[in-house]
């Protein structure tokens, strides 16, 4: 089954600078939105004014969310504790709100941040090694890495803008998004290698355009099929799965977009040519073909 009945011929490489600009704007918006960090010292001071002893405040998930840890409050009711918390956060910022009050474990704050960073670093290194070895060129490896970094930044930026809770389930979803995007990227890269072998006299830009167009139907069908499942999960899976499924939904969209407009286009701008994809002995065999 094919999504497009007729052969497509969209000039993806010709419009790559437009999409570079769009990605740059979205990344800047995501990063700038993170910059508005709460004053943790003031949060602790306001909590102390409300009678809480030894309050601990730290950023949680995104830099705009604050996790407050308090010792057991044995002499007050939960309703009174919440009321005092509300007065404290309103004193810090009138727009602040308490998302939930619960007993929390160690899987928050610095632990969450550190595990997320190390997971992302390990993922990026492995992606670079895999793509560079498989396709015999660092140009495609760099394109895949920049796409792999592009996608989680936009997913996390979405959570920052919408103020949705960011927990370990969302971290897992972000890593899954990287894998999903990489799969799309590798499919496009495989087709690029095939087209370079078959069309030795075409320009690199034409080869990449033809490669992306030839995989477009598969890319769209895969994305739509996956989105149907994840949207149902978001709507019917309950609050516990909404963050996870929202991250996957956003990730599918940006991952599909980046495999077309980021990974391949960056490889082109790095000077990708047919000789970069084939060892010398393979190039000689290709040149001898009729």
Report on this model:
The two termini are 33 Å apart. It is elongated, with a radius of gyration of 24 Å. Strand 1 and strand 2 form a beta hairpin. A two-stranded antiparallel ribbon has the order 1-2. Residues 103-108 have low confidence and may be disordered. It is built from ten helices and two strands. The chain has helices spanning 16-34, 40-49, 78-92, 109-135, 138-162, 168-198, 204-236, 239-269, 274-277, 280-287; strands spanning 56-60, 62-69. It is mostly helical.
Strand order of the largest sheet: 1-2
Total helical elements: 10
**Helix-residue proportion:** over 70%
Form type? elongated
Q: Give the overall average pLDDT.
A: 78
Q: Which structural class should the secondary elements be placed in?
A: mainly alpha
| Alpha-carbon distance between the two ends | 33 Å
- What are the segments in which pLDDT stays under 50 over at least 5 consecutive residues? 103-108
Number of strands: 2
What is the makeup of the main sheet?
2 strands, antiparallel
Radius of gyration: 24 Å
In short:
The protein has helices spanning 16-34, 40-49, 78-92, 109-135, 138-162, 168-198, 204-236, 239-269, 274-277, 280-287, and strands at residues 56-60, 62-69. The protein is mainly alpha-helical and 290 residues long.
Properties at a glance:
290 residues, mainly alpha, two-stranded antiparallel sheet, 10 helices, 4% strand
């Amino acid at each position: 089954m094919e999504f497009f009945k007729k052969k497509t011929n969209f000039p993806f490489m010709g419009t790559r600078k437009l999409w570079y600009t769009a990605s740059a704007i979205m990344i800047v918006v995501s990063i700038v939105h993170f910059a508005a960090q709460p004053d943790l010292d003031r949060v602790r001071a306001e909590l102390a004014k409300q009678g809480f002893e030894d309050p601990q405040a730290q950023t949680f998930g995104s830099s705009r969310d604050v996790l407050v840890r308090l010792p057991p409050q044995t002499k007050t009711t939960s309703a009174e504790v919440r009321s005092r918390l509300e007065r404290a956060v309103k004193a810090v910022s009138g727009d602040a709100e308490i998302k939930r009050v619960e007993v929390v474990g160690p899987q928050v704050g610095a632990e969450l941040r550190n595990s997320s960073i190390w997971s992302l670093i390990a993922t990026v290194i492995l992606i670079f090694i895999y793509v560079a070895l498989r396709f015999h060129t660092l140009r495609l490896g760099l394109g895949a890495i920049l796409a792999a970094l592009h996608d989680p930044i936009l997913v996390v930026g979405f959570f920052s803008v919408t103020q949705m809770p960011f927990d370990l389930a969302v971290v897992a979803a972000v890593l899954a998004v990287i894998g999903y995007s990489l799969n799309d990227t590798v499919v496009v890269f495989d087709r690029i290698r095939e087209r370079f072998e078959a069309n030795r006299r075409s320009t690199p830009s034409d080869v990449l355009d033809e490669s992306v167009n030839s995989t477009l139907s598969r890319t769209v069908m895969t994305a739509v099929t996956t989105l149907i499942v994840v949207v149902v999960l978001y709507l019917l899976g309950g609050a516990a799965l909404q963050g996870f499924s929202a991250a996957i939904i956003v990730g599918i969209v940006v991952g599909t977009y980046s495999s077309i407009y980021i990974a391949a286009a960056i490889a082109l701008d790095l000077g990708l040519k047919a000789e970069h994809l084939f060892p010398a002995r393979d190039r000689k065999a290709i040149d001898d073909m009729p």
